[in-house]
Every structure is written in C-alpha cells, then in structure tokens.
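Course assignment 3, question 2. Fill in each field.
Student: A.L.
Task: Predict the tertiary structure for the chain below.
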Amino acid sequence: MMPSEKVEAALVSDEDIPASFEILSKSFGHDAPFVDIYFPDHDTPSGQAQGVKRLTAWKQTSPNSKFLKAVTRAGQGDQERIIGFAIWTHMTEAPSPELEKVEDVEEVWPNKEDREFMARLWRDYIVPRTRAINESHNKGVYVLELLAVHPDYQRLGAGKALVQWGTKAADEQGLQAVVEGTPKGQRLYEQCGLRTEIEEMHFDVGDEFSGRRMPQLKFMTREPRP
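Answer field:
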C-alpha cells in the first residue's frame, strides 16, 4: 500500500462476498477455533464455496445486518482493493440457542460429532449477547459479528475503520455496541472504546469434547456516546 492510499469503509455488494470470505479465511488462518468450526474447511475450495453461499444468504435475508468492506483505491481509475471485511447487526431479539433454527446444520456440519460440538458451543456463545439484548429496554444492541483484515494489510487502519463505522452507527441510534472478540483483537477494540466485560467466555461442551481446541473469546461492550 502506498502512503497516499486511504482506507475507507463501504458497503459490500453480493459480488464482493467471495473476496470478503477469502479475507476472512486468510485473516484467521487456523488460529481461531470458533472460526474453524463455524466455517468448516474455510481454506479449501469446497469450504469457501459453502462459506460464500452462507454469507450471501445471510446478507440477502437479514436487513438488520450491514456487510462492510475496508478498501483502498490506487492506480488508474482509482481501482478498488478490498483489504478488510466486517458484519455489524442491530440485534433486537436474542438469537435462538438451538443451532438448527439458525443454520442448515446437516449441510454445514455433515459430521455428527462436529455438528454436536458446534451446537454446544453455540448455546454458550450467545449467552452474553442475549443478556445484553434483554437488558437493552427493547432497544437492542449493535453486534460486531465478524471482523477480518487481510494479513498483508494489517495495521493500516482497516480494522479501525470497520469498527468505528459500527460504533458511530450505534451512537446515532443510542445503542450499546458489543463484540465477542479474540485476544488478538482486544487492543483494537479498546482503542475504539470497547471495554472487556467477560475476560474469558465459558464453553461447557462436555467431557467427550475435552480434547478439542476451545475458543478463546472476550465479551466486550461500549456504551453509546452523544
């Protein structure tokens, strides 16, 4: 990236979804257990095709979710390069704790053990955001569902632009912003005004899954600012 290039946040089009999912996969690699199980085989052609299909369906059926890209423009015609991706959702109702009501579980997780592991993770994953929604006096909360920046374009302001887009929208609507963030992202979230409410989220998946890699997530919140 040249010094003259500026990072901007913009809305994602359906045509941007494949590039956005590729950034998601490259950003996390296999360092984020929750991403690995939620998007199976995300770094393979079949896993990427399935991920693109799921994100496209999500985007087209959830008007309260805003799909964002961080872009730079350079060269003739200000050619756009996507370097980051995020999803913010104004969530007014708590998500169902039953994964099968949220996802096509047999298609996404054909392996029965993987499906059960994800279902148990999901039940605990949504607990903090559910509490925040229930305590919002029917206003709901603004949830940063996903944030990814291409590894070749880290520390250029893409993540900050995507987070601040959402915190600004939350402020305008008088909403609390929340995120289930990785330890790696904690510093960025703190720079954008979020504070850790739960240092390490709890996942009770049972003894049969004790050998599996467990998510390491912090629940962070930000009160709206005038």
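Instructor remarks: Residues 8-12+64-222 form a domain with the Aminopeptidase fold (CATH 3.40.630.30). The mean pLDDT is 95.
Grade: pending
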